[in-house]
Amino acid sequence: MNNIFDALRESHEKQRLLMDALLKTSGDSKSRREFYAQLKQELQLHAEAEERNFYIPLIKKDSTIDMSRHGISEHHSIDKILAQIDETDFDSPAWLTHMKSLQHQVLHHLEEEEQHIFQMAGKVIGDEQKQDLAAKYQQEMGESVH
Ligand SMILES: [Fe+2]
């Protein structure tokens, strides 16, 4: 049985791989459209499931309220860049510029979570809850529970 940190790291890794793959595509191609659809779905599903099964329990504790608000606000920044990409033609040079700024923002967010937020969270969430949250997170992401 894995814990919520393993489950979140697994999703983060998927996001990194999809962004790398997307930045190697060019023009209005099938691969660019498909990878982008996958990335967008992955980012949106993940943000909702992570807020519900990670940030909401943390926002209830005094020591982790500020970092939870910060993490959630970064999800909104990511949503805004996704909306910009949605409004841009796949073959426009601006598409790649927006995609690079999305990658920059997402990588910053994932690193902050993995390097800082997970450590703080580890101190306030009990072992049993870590597993319970992982199961709920994975269920919401549509994955089988390990
Ligand atoms: Fe996040």
TrEMBL record:
Alphabetized InterPro entries for the sequence: Hemerythrin-like
Superkingdom to which the source organism belongs: Bacteria
Domain Hemerythrin-like: 4-121
One Pfam short name: Hemerythrin
Protein's name in the database: Hemerythrin domain-containing protein
